[in-house]
Amino acid sequence: MESWRAIGMTYLDYSSIAARNLRKALKNRSREDVKRRDVPVVKITPYKNGEPDREKTF
């Protein structure tokens, strides 16, 4: 059994902690590059009458 599961942690929690620790371990220049790429993008497209109305990017 995976160690994260044995202590009652979800995979999402485990991967979040691993990513955070990896970012902390990076050198300053690499850390800045990662911060620029670490922007979540969510696109929402509302539909009216079965057709896309407009697209919102967050």
TrEMBL record:
Family from the record: Belongs to the eukaryotic ATPase epsilon family.
Molecular function via GO: proton-transporting ATP synthase activity, rotational mechanism
Family annotation (InterPro entries): ATP_synth_F1_esu_mt, ATP_synth_F1_esu_sf_mt
Gene3D superfamilies xref list: ATP synthase, F1 complex, epsilon subunit superfamily, mitochondrial (1.10.1620.20)
GO annotation (BP), single: proton motive force-driven mitochondrial ATP synthesis
Protein name per the record: Protein stunted-like
A GO CC annotation given for this chain: proton-transporting ATP synthase complex
